[in-house]
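Hi! If you just cloned this repository, the fastest way to understand the data is to look at a raw example. We've pasted two of them here, unedited. The first protein comes first, obviously.
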Amino acid sequence: QVQLVESGGGSVQAGGSLRLSCAASGLAYSTYCMGWFRQAPGKEREGVASIDYIARTRYADFVKGRFTISKDNAKNILYLQMNTLKPEDTAMYYCAADHRWNMCGSAIVDPTILNALAIWGQGTLVTVSS
């Protein structure tokens, strides 16, 4: 059974940091692309960052220089280190994966294909207070 389970969300003050984790099971982890996406209340889901099977990364402009995506192939865990958090980063953060190597990166820049990603986690909530 393919499964993605996010953790690490919480409440933090502006300027603080959080690290999100996404534990993957049941998929050929090392050959999939993976990414982080978020949905704020009343807004559409949007791409945050992605990483493909050879660790090429892509970031949304609004997180460049603040967030870092990485993965541990040995542990099958995807991470999102979030620094200098802002109140506008408040959202539910989702982990997603796809066997098509370029899909996650494409979804970062083209939200119309975001829902085509094959596998999604349940999300973890991040709240940033001012």
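Ok, and the second one:
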Amino acid sequence: QVQPVESGGGLVQAGGSLRLSCAVSESIFSINVVAWYRRAPGKQRELVAEIGSGGSANYADSVKGRFAISRGIAKNTVYLKMNSLKPEDTAVYYCYVESFNGVNWGQGTKVTVSS
């Protein structure tokens, strides 16, 4: 099993933008779903966005219209573009990969949105 690697987190002011990246080492042909989850301080982990092998995407209601999930040209990288960030978006963001080999989670990347 190969762990996905996230990057792109950081500190940003409210209203700003960040782009998270998830580098996936598994063969794209074996991947069913790549998703972004987040865990805010004191809260449970929640699904933010997911993208299927066919390219269809789903979003949490709280981020619809502000976040966009996409795959790189080589499809080995999945991005989460986050616009109009709010303090309540502050969390550790995790990449989740579901494939024929099972499920893998990344270590997470921290996003802090200041008011």
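That's it. A detail worth noticing about the second one: The two ends are 39 Å apart (CA to CA).
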